[in-house]
Amino acid sequence: MTASARILAAALFCFTGVVLAAQHAPAHAREAKPQAKAPLTLEQAVARVQNQTGGKVLKADSRNFGRIVEYRIKVLTPKGHVRVVTLRSDQRVTDSN
Which pLDDT score is estimated for 49? Predict the structure, then answer.
């Protein structure tokens, strides 16, 4: 076997090993990138807060912070308390109860 044939055989052997290892890797390791969540809209934020609290939405405002939009939603809870819930378009939630 010539030197170039040995190099070619070694390269083919290594390439085959890499391909086989990639095929048997766990599914989470094969995924390219996790899908980012779609930005939350004001309507979705209102619906989410209404479903979570079971209350009546009194007011909903939005403020822009660069690429992020913050939604402030004022809710009257079934027990008669007023809560202000803040949601961000990137899905983060805070409650200023």
Answer: 94
Q: Is the pLDDT of residue 30 over 60?
A: no
Which structural domain range is residue 65 located in? 42-95
63-75: pLDDT as tens digits? 998 888 999 999 9
pTM: 0.56
Expressed in percent and rounded to 5, the helix, strand and coil fractions of the chain are 40, 30, 30
Look at residue 46 and tell me if it is in a domain: yes
Domain-located, residue 2 = no
How many separate domains does the chain show? 1
Residue (of 94, 95, 70, 91) closest to 81 by Cα position: 95
Residue 7 covered by a domain: no
Starting at the earlier edge strand, list the strands of the sheet with 82-88.
56-65, 68-76, 82-88, 93-95
